[in-house]
Structures are given as structure tokens and as C-alpha cells.
Amino acid sequence: MNLQIFTTGGTFDKLYYDALSDFQIGDPTVDDLLREARVDFSYRVDSLLKKDSLDLTDEDRALIRDQVAACEHRHILIIHGTDTMTNTAEALRGIAGKVIVFTGSMQPARMRQSDAPFNLGLAIGALQLLPDGLYIAMSGQVFEAGKVRKNRSEGRFEGQ
């Protein structure tokens, strides 16, 4: 499998600055996580944006769509903030001939009790098994895009 990974920021790559009592988007962590997992497939990581998903614009979504559509690889993973992940997935609807899986996390990957490594593994496993289409891999499940929502009060994704 040749996997293209696009990162857009979101909680997955947030850093906590104690002196500022604030989170900021850092460099992508996915490469470190995959090295630690000792994966044995070819992948490339491209950071498209470093934004909280609540700050994404229509222009940002158009950039993501253009990059995915132009990508030579069939298997595409998009690491995205969870608040508007479903909106960006909708913006990619109609791209044919690709398996596109979105994932993210409720806690930054750099934190010890993060769901990021689990979600990343789930998304990569799903990419290898799913037919062409748009999917969201979160909360231990893989959902077809358009049939999932974030339940903020429970801190998880669930089917609609």
C-alpha cells in the first residue's frame, strides 16, 4: 500500500503551553507515531494546514479537495480536527477512485492518555479494507461520511 497522509491541524497535533494556558497547533505527529508502530508500508506525510478545524474556511476545504483529487495514490488519510471533520468530508464528496479516511483525536497525540494512536491505527486498517469512498474512523468505529456526527457531550463519534 502506498498511503498519502494529509494533515490539517486539529487536536491531534496540538501542543500545550503551560505558561500560556493555551493549546497551539504543532508539527504533525503522525510520522513519529508510525515509526514507533514499526509500520511496513510506504507513506508520505504532507502538512496542508495547521489550524483548529473551527477556523477552517471554504478556501481551506477547497485546498484539501484539490490536493486529494490531484493525489496519485488511491489510499488517502486525512488527519483533521474533530469539530468540522464531517463538513470537510462533505466537501470531498464526488472524488472517485480513492479510499479517503478522516481521523483525528479528542486529546492531543502528545498526551499520554490520547486516543490519537488508536484512531490512527483504526484509520490505516480501514484504508486497507474499504472500497472506494469517504469514511470517518473515530471512537473505535468506521463510519460512512454523511452518516456520522460528533457527540460533544459524550466525547465520541456516533452513527446518525
From TrEMBL:
Tell me the superkingdom of the source: Bacteria
Which PROSITE patterns does the UniProt record give?
ASN_GLN_ASE_3 (PS51732)
Signal peptide range: none
> What GO MF annotations does this protein's record show?
asparaginase activity
Kindly indicate whether the keyword Hydrolase belongs to this entry. yes
Q: Where is the L-asparaginase N-terminal domain?
A: 3-155
Q: What class of enzyme is it?
A: hydrolase
Q: Which UniProt keywords apply?
A: Hydrolase
Instruction: Give the EC number(s) under which this enzyme is classified.
Output: 3.5.1.1
- How is this protein named in the record? Asparaginase domain-containing protein
In its UniProt entry, the species of origin is given as Stutzerimonas tarimensis
